[in-house]
Amino acid sequence: MASGLGTLACCAEPAIRPDMPNSVSFPAQQVKFVRFVIHASSANQPCLDELEVYAPDGKLNLAAHGRGAIATASSCLAGYSKHAIEHLNDGRYGNDFSWIAAGSSAEWAQIELPQTTAISKVVFSRDRMRQYADRVPIEFEVQLSTDGDVWKTVKHIVAKAADIAIR
Question: ω before 14 within 30° of 0 (cis)?
């Protein structure tokens, strides 16, 4: 449950892109857990092909499975092995390596870092291989925690379907 401390709401700027990385920046915080809570998507259950986490220097994806980060999620669409939780941080892009939630709202994807680390940016994408432009998160929160029990929302984005840029 979110603590409600310091919730920041704004519109998506620039527009959310289904085919490109979407950055969500915030003041640097020391955390062990990063949660991406999806309240609404452009259509059906939300989909992410990768969830990345960056330190203030922005150089390395700290969420990468190869760095010891662990991905979990609130649910996963049943019956489709290509839409698995482990695809959240496997370093592969595109619909065939994505996670799709079972429900359409109040779903979340989470990264547990190997140790408490300063972070200042989360990056997500729907399908960087440019095959699909549906299921894009349009209302979401980035929540942070040091213990996995108490959460702080550092960014709450609400975009209209018209704010989703498709090229």
Answer: yes
